[in-house]
Amino acid sequence: MWQYRARNLFSVTIICLSFLIVGVFLSLSNNLQHMAKELSTNMVVTFFLDKAATAAEIKGIEQKVLGSPLVSGVKVVGAEEARDRFQKNFPDLKDILANLKINPFPPSLEARLKDTAPASREVAKLVQDVRQMKGVEDVQFNQDWVDKMQSLSRLAKAVGFFLGGILMLASFFIISNVIKLNVLARKNEIEILRLVGATNIFIRIPFLFEGIALGVMGSTASLAFLLLATKLFPIYIGSLGALQQLMNFRYLSLSQALGLIAAGGIIGCLGSLSSVSKFLKT
Helix count (H) and strand count (E) of the chain? Predict the structure, then answer.
């Protein structure tokens, strides 16, 4: 491998780029899945109240929500508290609020659902019943965000496998051609081995190890670059504000990392097999 290091380095580089693309989209998918899981375990229905709602109306809404067996607790959030939350979560938009003469945020009532609460008909019925009560202007239920996060996660994973799959196919042919060149370069050695009685399996094994080694090195290098990207990328997206959490990367799990390394070895092995079989009788 060191004797033909230039072509082997090129092969490892292509494999590394292929698996790096898959790893990036898997990391993005992991982050979206993590956010969806956090939202699903912290299910909150927010009922936005009319600013002109009376204390009696707010009390009635609170009692209606608390009366549901799906709800574990209720909190009334005033307009000022809502404004403070917004300023804390979106510090880049403080200037916009400072230029407003009025507080644009309405009071709200946050109903925290139990972990066992089904996100289906029962919750939808509760939301619909409370929405029709006097003093309620709008409702926000983060189940919609959970569904969107999961959809984005599946899309990111699919795009990653599609783009990575194309490059992995290219890696397969590159490894095959690299091994083919190495076989041609050792043609005289192979002929001598055959003359002294070496079997095809004996001749084939070193080339198989070479292909596997190229694949494993390329996929392992991609994991190292991916780790570097997950550490450095947040530094460059700090100005994205609210989008930073969506665009963040969450490193691969152990099973995903081992899967990528194994896939690299398999691609290298298959590429070597397809190349060597053309020169040796099975």
Answer: 10, 4
Q: What is the pLDDT of residues 205-255, one digit of tens each?
A: 888 888 888 889 988 998 998 888 777 765 444 444 445 555 567 778 888
Whether pTM exceeds 0.85: no
3-state secondary structure of 30: helix
For 92, what's the count of Cα atoms within 13 Å in the CB-facing half-sphere?
A: 7
b/e 28-48 (16+ beta carbons within 10 angstroms → b) = bbbbbbebbeebbeebebbbb
Mention every residue, 6+ apart, whose C-beta is less than 8 A from residue 140.
45, 46, 48
Name all domains of the chain by residue range, CATH numbers in brackets. Answer: 5-38+146-276 (no CATH), 43-141 (3.30.70.3040)
Query: At residue 179, what is the residue type?
Result: I
Give the pLDDT confidence of 162-213 residue by residue, as tens digits: 776 776 777 677 777 777 777 777 778 878 888 898 888 888 888 888 888 8
Q: How far apart are CA 82 and CA 151, in angstroms?
A: 29
Closest by CA to 171, choosing from 214, 200, 135, is 214
